[in-house]
Each structure stands twice: as C-alpha cells, then as structure tokens.
Design a protein that fits this description.
The chain is α/β, with parallel strands linked by helices and 392 residues long. It has nine helices and 18 strands. The strands form six sheets. Strands 1, 2, 5, 6, 7, 8 and 18 form a seven-stranded mixed beta sheet that branches. A three-stranded antiparallel beta sheet has the order 11-10-12, with helices on one face. The protein has a two-stranded antiparallel ribbon with strand order 3-4. The structure holds flavin-adenine dinucleotide.
Length: 392
Amino acid sequence: MTATAEKPDCAGSVASVSTKADVLVVGGGTAGAVAAIQAARAGAKTLLMEMGGQLGGTMTAGGVAFPGLFHAWGRQVIAGIGWELAAETVRRDGGALPDFTGTPARHSDHQLHINQFLYALLAEDKCLKAGVEIAYYEFPLSIETSAGAWLVECAGPGTRRRVACRQIVDCTGNAEAVGMLGMPRLRGEETQPGSMLFKCGAAYEPGREQLQAVYVHGADSSNSVTRTAANIAGRRAVLEQLAAGRLVHLQPETAFRESFRILGEVVITREDYVSGRLFEDAVCHAFYPVDLHTKDGVKPMPLAENVVPTVPLRALIPRGSRNIIAAGRCVSSDRLANSGLRVQASCMAMGQAAGAAAALAARQKRAPLDVPLEDIRRLLREHGAIVPGARE
Ligand SMILES: Cc1cc2nc3c(=O)[nH]c(=O)nc-3n(C[C@H](O)[C@H](O)[C@H](O)COP(=O)(O)OP(=O)(O)OC[C@H]3O[C@@H](n4cnc5c(N)ncnc54)[C@H](O)[C@@H]3O)c2cc1C
C-alpha cells in the first residue's frame, strides 16, 4: 500500500452553531432525559445537552441500573415517562418486573433490574421521536440573561454553540448551571462515597444481575479535576479486587451519590420526608428509605407504614430565580432527606415535573412559579404521571 500525501488543514476546525430553543435541558442523565422528553412532548422546542456520549447518566455511565421505587404500600406512586422507559426496557429485554403487590421484606425487591445498554438506546430513541435535539459532548461555558431570554455559550470538541432559550432545566446532578449563575448551592462538609461498578468472574448479564461495587471515598463530582481523581481512585480499587477472578465488565465512570443541592424556594427537610408531608405545590412523589452511606457503610431507615413523601415545585426552583429549574439528586433538601430523594424513580418524576413546568413557562412567557399549578398538574397527568393530592 502506498502512502498518500496529506494536506495540512489550516482553515480552522471549530464549527460555530447557533440554536434557538424554548427549553434547554443541561444533563441527559436519569432526570434530564425524562425532562427533555416531557418538554418536547408538550410542544416545546427542546435542546438536550449532555457532556457524555449517551443518555442515562448514573444509570448508564455509572451502571446503577436498578431504579426504584415506583411502588409504595401496594400501589404505584410514580409513573409517567420514567416508568414508561424503565418498564419498556425490561419488557424489550425479555426481563420480568417484580411482583408489586404488598410490601416486600427488602425495599430493593421492588427495584427494576434493567439492561443499561438498552436503556441508553431507548432513552435516545424516545428523545428523538419526541423531537428533542441532542447535543452530546457539549457543556455550557457561560450563561447570561438578555431581554427575558438566556444566552448560553457552550463548547464541545471542535464546536462552539450559542443557545438562546427561554427556560433552562438543570439536570447535571451537581446543579452546575445554577452554580454558574452564582446562585447558592448546599453541600455538606462530608459527602457520601461514590462507587465504581464492575464484574469479576463469569460474563456480565445486563438486566439480570447487579454489578459489584467498590466505594470511592471522597469522590467529588464538582469539576473535571475531581472527577478524574474519582475515576482513577475507582479503577485502582477495582484493580485490587482482581484476585477474585477475571474482569468481564467495568463501568466507564465512578458514580456519585452526593454533591451540590440547590437552595430552593423550599428546602425539603428530613422531617418533611419521613412524615410524608403533602406540600401544597407537590408535583410528584418520592419513595425510598433514608439511605445515607458513610465510611462504615449504610443502614437504610425505612419509612413508617403508609408514608409517601412528596416533592414541591418550589424545591426545584433556585431561590429568587426566574426561568431556571433544577431536577434530580440536586433537589433542594437537607442531607438526610436527600439520601432518600436522590433515587432514580424520584429523579425521573422530578425530571418530568421540571420538563412540564419549563414547557408551560416557555409557552406562557412566564416564570415557572407563575404558571398556574393546575396547568402543570394537568399536563403531567396527561402524560401519565401521578400527581400527589386529592385527585390521585
Ligand atoms: C453507587 C450508587 C448506587 C445507587 N443505588 C441506587 C439504587 O439502588 N436505586 C436507585 O433508584 N438509585 C440509586 N442511586 C441513586 C441514583 O442512581 C442517582 O442519585 C440518580 O441516578 C441521579 O440522577 P440525576 O439525573 O440527578 O443525575 P445523573 O443521572 O448523574 O445525570 C447527570 C447527567 O448530567 C451530565 N452532566 C453533568 N454536568 C454537565 C454539564 N456541565 N453539561 C452537560 N452535561 C452534564 C452527566 O454527564 C450526566 O449524564 C445510586 C447512586 C449511586 C452513585
């Protein structure tokens, strides 16, 4: 074979892209993919920006593919787009849903075992079918406001994008867009460990088993430097486990349990959570034990019988803000409440609520908190969600 001469490329290789959207969802993870699908299905022109190369976040890059909990005390409390995605993943994978009747001995018996690879495919497919534009490998560099719109400068390899949008939904897990705007975020001095998931031994059976996990103490998702350190620490810890057998599966990233939470218009406290407080502006349920991991492990504290916590819209709205909503594990809450709220079914439900509120706010040219609550709840119900309150 003869070598061909290559011409040097001096033309400049950065593509400039300009996007106008009603709703920009930043972060295409557990909450973000659902938020984008909801916003687009509600008719909003939606851009979903994900710094990785696939959707699903902690479920797919982190490999935490056992979403819970959609059911409580013998009834379904979270449905809608997250349930549609998770249940369809199980069905198309030939898997089986748990028996949801009654109350299981262990809460984990009601979690779904999903095939993380199929989930990423279906989440992307549903986004595209809903009309969501996806921008992988991109992230915001700066966010400014001008004449009631957001101007967001974004970057990716070889790309500079300028987004003009009415509403931002921050689903980055860390509330990164909120942080870029200089709005306050909450974070404990100590945070729960992250985990690196892997499998040693026989072949990995996605959707049929849980992966092994090593704790990554001090794992911090604040920025690329701390994320790099967490990935290196996680891989080193896996390397030390290899005596246990052949490595047949390793997730690409350490998964993070805790980072920044927004300081919202309401902060959900542990008392609110364990008492199942029905907030007057509740937009979804959450259900999981208080589940704080420490250096010594975790002792889940189950909720008392018939308690089902709720999430108010105001816990998704950064305090004093207009036109930005946050959803997912960064929900405004204290550490103990957050240790239960952060699970995947709840993140999906918050994502759907945020997507609905953002789409309506963009359509009505109002801030999300000025949209009549009944409009948001009606839209959520139309899209299969369960809204806490009288008409459940
Ligand atoms: C080890 C572990 C075990 C767990 N066990 C369970 C369990 O058994 N059951 C359960 O239901 N939950 C469990 N959880 C909790 C749950 O998985 C997470 O809290 C939840 O998935 C978080 O969802 P999220 O949407 O907030 O964030 P993520 O799913 O992490 O999504 C955030 C997304 O934003 C992207 N992003 C971040 N910054 C930017 C940026 N600047 N620009 C663009 N994109 C960005 C990320 O790449 C990612 O895709 C566990 C968590 C961990 C870590």
